[in-house]
Amino acid sequence: MRLLLIAYEFPPSPSPQSLRWTYLCRELAELGHEVHVLAPDLGGETPGLPPLPSGVRVHRSFPGPVRGMLALLRKRKQRKAARGAAGPTGNGDAARDGAAPSPIRPPRSWKQRISETVQRIAEYLHYPDIRGEWRYWGRRELQRLLDTLAPDLVLSSHEPATSLELGLLAARRGLPWVADLGDPVLAGYTAPRWRRRAHRLEREVCERADLVTVTNPAAAALLHERHARSGPIAVLPQGYDDRAAAARAADATLFDHARLELLYTGSFYSFRRIDALLEALDRHPQARLSIAAITVPESILAAARGAPERIRLLGFLPHTAILALQRQADVLVNIANDDITQIPGKFHEYLGAARPILHLGDADPVAEMVVALRRGWSCANTADAIHARLAALETAKADRRLDDGLALGAEGIEQYGWSRIAARLDTLLREVAGPARTT
Q1: Would you tell me the crossing angle of helices 110-123 and 65-85 to the nearest 10 degrees?
Q2: How far apart are CA 264 and CA 313, in angstroms?
Q3: Rounded to an integer, what distance in angstroms lies between the CA atom of residue 290 and that of residue 277?
Q4: Same domain, yes or no, for 267 and 401?
Q5: Which pLDDT score, from 0 to 100, does residue 412 have?
Q6: Which of 152, 155, 249, 264 has its CA 20 to 30 A from that of 274?
Q7: C-alpha–C-alpha distance, residues 209 and 177, integer Å
Q8: Within 10 Å of residue 221's Cβ, how many Cβ atoms?
Q9: SS3 for 105?
Q10: Is 255 among the domain residues?
Q11: Number of neighbouring beta carbons within 10 Å of residue 315
C-alpha cells in the first residue's frame, strides 16, 4: 500500500514519538509498503538515529514563523560546524559518529531567553503549543500530497494534536485514516485554556478515525469510557530494536566495576519525579547514578554539583550510543508517570538492553510487567523504599549475583520488538484499507 504518515515529531527530532515512527516506518517499508511522511522542516540533524530505508520518502514543509526562524539558525550553525569539522584540525569522523556526549545545556544566554519568551507568547496563540503554528503550512502541503500521491491510507502521529487535526482533513476526503494517539489528547498536563478544545478534538478523532491506536490498555479503556467509541482501539506499545545486532561497545571506562552503577536515559517532567532517588543516593556513597539527557531540572543540577561522585550528568548522547550504554550499566532506572494511562517509552527500550530494570512506582502497569517478565524490581518511589532496594542491590553485586532470578534474554519479550509491533500494525492497516486498496 501507499501510506502517508503525518508526523510533526520525526527525525531529526530525537523524541520518543520520533523514534517510534522511525522504527515503524522502517519496518513497514520492509513489509513492502510505499511510505511517505509529511513533516515540518525544523533544520539541523541528530546523529545516531536509526537509518531510514530508501522506501521511505519524507516531504518537508515550512513549520511556521517562529520554528522556521529557529530552523534557519540551526542550519546556519550546522553549516559552520561542517566547515570546522572539515578543516585541518577538525575531527569529522567523530562528529558524524556522535559518540562523544554533548554537555548539559549551560545556563540560558540572553539569546536563549529571548527565544523562549517569543515561544511562550506564541503558545498562547497556537493550540496545543508552539508546534500548532505548523497547522496552516502543514494543511497546504497535505492537500497537495493527497492530490499528487493518492495514498491508500493516511496515519497521524500524535503528539502534537496538530497532526490529528490534519488527519481529520484526510478523513473528510473519504480516505481511510488511522490515528496513533499514543496518549490521550486530553491529558493531565494539558494547559487549562486548551482542555475544552482537547476534549472536543479527542472526541472527533474517536468518531472519525477508522482505527485508533494507543500504547497501553489503560489509555484504551479511558478513551472508550470518555467517548463510547464503537470502532477498534488497538494497543501498540513502544518497543525495542529487535533487528539490530548487539549495540556497539560503550566506553569500557565509563562504569566502575567496584560500585553499583545506575543509568537513567529518559526525560524529566513534573509528572515523573526523581527527587526520592536523589535523596536515597545520599545514603549510598558507593552507588552512582549516570543521567543521559540534554536538559535536566535545576534540582538535579544542584544535586550533581553537591555530590559529583554519586550523580554524573552525561549530557546528550545519540540514540545508538545510549543503547550501547544501557547494555553496560548494572541497573537501568525507570520512573513511573503519575498518570497510569502513560507508560514511559524508555521502559520498552530497556527491555532490549538485557540488563536489570529498577522501576520506581508500585501501582502502575510497568510495575506489574517488570515482575511478570522477571526483568528487574519495582518499589515505591519514596526515599526509604529506594534506600532499602539499593542496599539489597549493592549486596547482590558484591556477591556477584545481581542478575540471579531474572530472565534477561529475548525470550518472553518478543512481542515488544519493533518488527513484531509493525507486523501487527500491518495487519490492522490492511483491515482498515480493505481489499480494494491492498491489492
Answers
A1: 150
A2: 10
A3: 12
A4: yes
A5: 92
A6: 249
A7: 5
A8: 13
A9: coil
A10: no
A11: 16
CA 300 to chain centre: 21
pLDDT higher than 80, residue 99: no
Write 53-58 long-range contacts (CB < 8 A, 24+): 53/26, 53/29, 55/29, 55/30, 56/25, 56/26, 56/29, 58/10
Strand ranges in 253-305 using DSSP code E only, listed in sequence order: 260-264, 287-291
- Amino acid symbol at 61: S
Full-model pTM: 0.90
Q: Which sign, positive or negative, has the C-alpha torsion 248, 251, 253, 257? A: negative
Contacts of residue 207, Cβ cutoff 8 Å, sequence gap at least 6: 227, 229
Is 426 found in the same domain as 403?
A: no
Tell me the pLDDT tens digit for each residue of 253-265.
Answer: 789 999 999 999 9
Q: Residue 428 has which C-alpha cell?
A: 490492522
Distance CA 23, CA 160 (A): 19
Strand order of the sheet with strand 287-291? 311-313, 287-291, 260-264, 331-335, 357-360, 376-379
CA 319, CA 296: separation in Å to the nearest integer? 18
Contacts of 29 (CB under 8 A, 6+ apart): 35, 52, 53, 55, 56
Residue 395: which H helix or E strand, with range? helix 383-398
Give me the domain span that covers residue 181. Answer: 2-81+95-239+418-438
Contact between residue 354 and residue 407 where contact means Cβ atoms under 8 Å apart: no
Give me the residue label for grid cell 570546522. Answer: 84
| pLDDT tens by residue, 49-91 | 889 998 899 999 999 998 999 899 888 888 887 777 655 444 4
Q: Is the pLDDT of residue 383 over 70?
A: yes
Helix (H, G, I), strand (E, B) or coil at 326: helix
Q: Determine whether 172 is exposed, middle or buried from the number of CB atoms within 10 Å of its CB (0-12, 13-18, 19+).
A: exposed
Q: Answer whether residue 318 is part of any domain.
A: yes
Beta-strand pair 331-335/357-360: parallel
- The pLDDT mean for the chain works out to 89
Q: Which of helix, strand or coil describes residue 160?
A: coil
Amino acid symbol at 221: A
Find out whether 421 and 237 touch, Cβ atoms under 8 Å.
yes
CATH no. for residue 265? 3.40.50.2000
Shared domain for 318 and 369, answered yes or no, is yes
Distances (CA, A) of 282 to 117, 272, 336, 384: 36, 20, 21, 11
CB neighbour list of residue 174: distance below 8 Å, 6 or more residues apart: none
